[in-house]
Amino acid sequence: MNKHDRSNRALAARDLRHVWHPCTQMHDHERVPMLPIVRGEGAWLIDADGRRYLDGISSWWTNLFGHANPRIAAALADQATQLEHVIFAGFTHEPAIRLAEELVRITPPGLERVFFADNGSAAIEVALKMSFHYWLNRGHGEKTRFIALTGSYHGETLGALSVSDVALYRKTYAPLLLTPILAPSADTYEGEPGETPQQIAARRLGELRMLLERHAHETCAVIVEPLVQCAGGMRMYHPDYLTGLRALCDEFDVHFIADEIAVGFGRTGTMFACEQAGVSPDFMCLSKGLTAGTLPLAVVLTTDHVYEAFYAEYSAGKAFLHSHSYTGNPLACRVALETLAIFRDEPVLERNRALAAHLAGRLAPLRDHPHVSDVRQTGMIVAVELVADKASRTPFPAGERRGLEVYLYGLEHEALLRPLGNIVYFMPPYVTTQAELDHLVDTALAGIEHALAR
């Protein structure tokens, strides 16, 4: 095989000889193209043959300010000439210190302590362990369980998967997982006919109360994705649920873990989704947009009250037992600082509101489509639910893979759309222009008709 051949075909062949890709049935690539991307420009990705793809999903929801962003690239290059990495036990560095200070400043009140990790799943592991260990240090070792929402997804390491409600994963890995207590989601799509989002939230809070009355004595924390359950199908719910959740956690003495890994940093219209409910969680997990999609980095923010449960003489054996080799990596911290600087220097959220309104207007006609049961939006996240029958909301059989047809159509027409089953969603970078959004929507609309015509 000619290793000097840099064409799509040659690079894909080399890849498929050795590389095992995530969340992929590799057999699919006998039909589905493997696309080697060689560079990015703004909201666009360019493959080895020079074809362009508008990144409508922000490369797994990470990219905020475009690919190869010059400000972020310059900060990374500068940091690389000073310090690339150092052990974070017993040592520190200014990028991590500054980043912790800035995150404490911009996150909801009361979150004063910052623990660094490598990725979103790792952040969830940290929060779960820290919550359990807090109760253990306080003399409540009987608290060993977690409450999660139906349809939730928090990652794919074993702890994170244990508090997720994805049927395929739980069926496959069930013998390895903890058993969560599942509370019904306040998902507006699953509401009763005529119910408002606020009424759905109130009803689901009543059901959560009943769960806590039975299980609070053994429960460490309730973990939720605020406002949008992303990988679970872009399910959305009213901020009232978060307000009530905070009150219930206080009443029943359990922690509130906010997984803002996908929804943080402006995705929902505010910097953090929790802001829309005016609540502060006991733990906030952040990743993805933290570095604008440039490098792996995650943090868990928590309170001084939690921190104090671990602060003791060495002989007390209360230290938090968790570490990663690349904890607090200086390169990633410096990139995160530049990401936050862009938020400070530019009217990012204001621009996002205009883009979100444009996207809403373009997709509104789909509400009357005979095979669309719902068009839902929270900020810069929009989802279109395709169904076989609109009146009964009967889904298409999963084996028909209608969403895959939308994906393939998009690739043929310069757009990266990667539906969740039969849910076509949009989560573009914040630098996407209205004209580019029009291209994305036009391609998606045509792709949906192509998939439905099968």
**CATH structural architecture of the largest domain:** 3-Layer(aba) Sandwich
Number of helices: 14
By helix and strand content, what is the structural category? alpha/beta
Low-confidence stretches are none
For this structure, the CATH topology of the largest domain is Aspartate Aminotransferase, domain 2
Instruction: Give the helix proportion (percent range).
Output: 25-40%
Radius of gyration: 22 Å
What's this model, at a glance?
With 454 residues, the chain is of the alpha/beta class. The protein has helices at residues 8-18, 58-61, 70-80, 94-106, 120-137, 158-162, 167-173, 197-215, 240-252, 304-308, 330-345, 348-363, 402-412, 434-452, and strands at 37-41, 44-47, 52-55, 113-117, 145-149, 181-183, 219-224, 228-229, 235-236, 255-259, 283-286, 298-302, 372-378, 381-386, 415-416, 423-426.
What are the salient characteristics of this protein?
454 residues, 7-stranded mixed beta sheet, 2 domains, Aspartate Aminotransferase, domain 1, alpha/beta, Aspartate Aminotransferase, domain 2, 14 helices, 37% helix
